[in-house]
Amino acid sequence: MREALKEKPAPLFEDVIPPLFEAAHLRRISLKVKTVMLTLPPDRGLYLWGPVGCGKSYSMAALIRHYILSRRKVGRIRFSRLLREIRKCFGGSGGEGESAIIGWAEKVDKLFIEDLGLSDNPETDFAARTFYEILDYRIEHRLPVFITSNRPPEEIEKNFGERIGSRLRQACFVLPVGGGDKRRVI
User: Fold this and answer.
1) What is the CATH number of the domain that holds 170?
2) How far apart, in whole angstroms, are the C-alpha atoms of residue 178 and residue 117?
């Protein structure tokens, strides 16, 4: 995460696309998902949700590649890691480190957050406040956020609160995806 905070002219594929998805390309995803991705207004993101292993992260990696090739500054992080990195700041450096991490998430051109809402339980106040702060900033500054989750927006609202549910629908086009678990090997 600390490397992601350094300013770079343009990200390299390996900075934001994990090796598992290095071959991800828009031509390899469903026409429906690709069409939605390529017709989003510049200030609107995407909330892609569906069952485990249906290709959400792969599809987002393909979109990340598209944005990188378009010379956009792209950031990608798993929600649990974002929270973990911020919590690390509480030990000593406090607010400065936390501000830098949240500042990075707020200001990158295209922010991708993976695996939002993993828990069946209501989110902690810390998780909800952190997500709210980032989401609200991005909405106010017309910066899109792209999110993957196994949960429909209604469950996210239930776990994070009505305020976040409303903003999530404002910030993102909601697209459910289906299909079997592509990770299973026979």
Assistant:
1) 3.40.50.300
2) 18
76 in any annotated domain:
no
Exposed, middle or buried: residue 86 (CB in 10 Å: 0-12, 13-18, 19+)? buried
Given a contact cutoff of 8 angstroms between Cβ atoms, the answer to whether 78 and 112 are in contact is no
Q: How many residues does the chain have?
A: 186
Local confidence band at 5 (pLDDT 50, 70, 90 cut-offs)? very low
The mean per-residue pLDDT over the stretch 103-129 comes to 88
* Boundaries of domain holding 164: 45-52+82-179
Residue 102 lies in a domain: yes
Task: Let me know if residue 136 belongs to a domain.
Answer: yes
Cα–chain center distance at 80: 11
The whole model's pTM is what?
Answer: 0.86
Domain count for the chain, please give it.
1
The half-sphere exposure of 116 on its side-chain side, counting CA atoms within 13 A, is 32
* Sheet-wide strand order for 74-78: 74-78, 110-114, 145-149, 45-49, 172-176
DSSP classification of residue 122: P
- Interacting residues of 170 by C-beta distance below 8 A, sequence separation 6+: 139
Which are the contacts of 37, defined by CB distance < 8 A and separation ≥ 6? 26, 46, 59, 63, 66
* Contact indicator for 49, 177 with CB cutoff of 8 Å: yes
